[in-house]
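Justification of computing resources. Each target in the renewal requires a structure prediction run like the one illustrated here; the chain below, 244 residues long, is used simply to show the kind of job we budget for.
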Amino acid sequence: MSDKPVSDKTMSDTARRTIVVTGASRGLGRHICTRAVEEGWNVIGLARTVEPLDGVRMIACDVGDAEDVAKAFREIRKDRNFYALINGAGIASMNLMFTTPPATIDRIIRVNLLGTMYCSQQAGRLLARRGEGRIINFSTLANSIALKGEAVYAASKAGVEGFSRTFAREMADFGITVNCISPGPIDTALIAKVPEENIRRIVSHQIIQRKAEPEDVWNVTSLLLSPAANWVTGDVDVIHLGGV
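Resulting structure tokens:
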């Protein structure tokens, strides 16, 4: 953890703060958007395919494209209340490594790892000027247990963990926390094609042996967004939901 504490500014009214959520059109990202709106946040959602969502301002953006991300953040920078980035975009493909097409490898790394880095870089520049803020990334328990068939996905998320750990140190002096949540399987499109046997294997490695619910993830996300998490960063960067 950095020797210098992050900002101790409090958030008296979340309605005056804006969070940006990637992967906002479906699954976990969509749930986070909905719950954030319910708790009074202003929410901007980034997604390749824009679908209307009550209370959310949607911006079309492919997070795996650096130019597309830069364009989206030129719009976001106009919001003087921008406070947090939640990197919820992610994709997976269940294949043994030697049968995975190069195009699939490229796309998973580009969305999961480079997308997180591109968005964090742009958000970090804006938040650093304001002297406070939050960046929340997502890893996976599949990385911890070396799940067969998920070599590329696990590699992309291992990269996110390493990035989060170092980026937290870089941003601490600007009052920005960077954290990484690692949930177990959640019933979203991300795991729709994963064999049930593999899901059971992941769950069997957890201390709490059940699938995660989107609300489980939101509860931790909400905590990390709050003033109570001002000192949660640096070495405390990977939170394994369900336990391993």
